[in-house]
Input
Amino acid sequence: MSYKIEDLNGCTKKLSFTFEKLDLAKEIKAELQTKRKEASLKGFRKGKAPMAMVEKFYGGQVENDALNRFVQNQLFEAINTETLKVVGYPSLENVNYEAGKSVTFEAKVEIFPSFDIKDMSKLSFKKDSVEVKTSDVEEIKKSYLASKAEMTPCNGNTKVKEGVFAVMDFQGITPDGEKPESMKGEEFVLEIGSGQFIPGFEEGMLGMKKGEEKVIELTFPENYHSEELQNAQVKFEVKLLEIKEKIYPDFTDEMAVEFGYESVANFEEKNKASLFAQKEKQVKEKLQQEILEKLISENSFDVPSALVTQQETHLKEDLTKNLKQQGFNDDMVAEYFVKWASDLEEKAKFQVRSGLILDKLANDYNVEASEDDLNAKIAETAMTSGLEAEQVKEYYTSDANVKKNLMYAIREEKTFDKLIEQVKVK
Output
């Protein structure tokens, strides 16, 4: 064997290669013959240049290419011989080549870590209860009736409270006393409790009456998209012009039919079931997160940096889309990633660790995702989203990668179901 292996950590190995006798003359000569047939050197027809001239022009490149091929072949032959499950690309180091005599080089390769999960039978968790209230269904009715609701002025004694709509003029004042146009609004309509303005603004309006003026003092969030306003202490001069509320029509059987249901009772039954499924999913995801956090704290092992980098890239891609939808430009996105770099790295590490743990458990439990599981997931998604099952199926089965990701998610869910049987859940 022309190499030796050293463990650098639980997921990184160093392979050191030594070839004391290495003559690449045969490979170099064959490659030069090929180059000669293709070469168009000045003063000679294609393929007719003297070998000495071809060697002069291409000798160094050909020898380097031959060495690279030799090194790559030896490395991947060793990887196959050792049956290493390599993550990412190997890194070559300390290549020392003496032409016609010898070569030594080192390669670092990251592999999937091998680890055991500690006994979980004594771990205990609490699962939240799931309840759908009548008020939850009523809120859904209001969302359906929103387009039919009428905005009506409240009487003069009404005070600002959650749920009303405040019609106002406002002007923001920066710490240096400026009144920028970007912080000004006239006859602006704000739903109190919607969270549309920065924290503290809507709370500061509570209790105001029509015609009242007030100065609201606030501090902008530290992650506000406009850098010059981050953590800035500002004042808002507010004049309340009017208070309005939405008056919703009665939700009748005729309305229910218009919205695609058989009756009010049918609307309530279906939406209650959908809400229950959504809440149950949220409770399940919360429990799964708590279990994962515990498993990660209980089971320490090295993770490949290549997987962490890959996951961090995915996180940044998703975040970039979300931030740009909020009005961030490229410079602001770049600043955000610099500011929260350590958080993103930690999140990526957590996701990689949890993925490796779940994959290990799935293998231990012999869990696989089947077509029946896929169909059940499609039916569940259709119910919670309100879409037709055929629409959901078309989305998840028309693209191979989308389907693959869903099957992976189903496998993880089934693994959690097995896992919950091993721990104590109250």
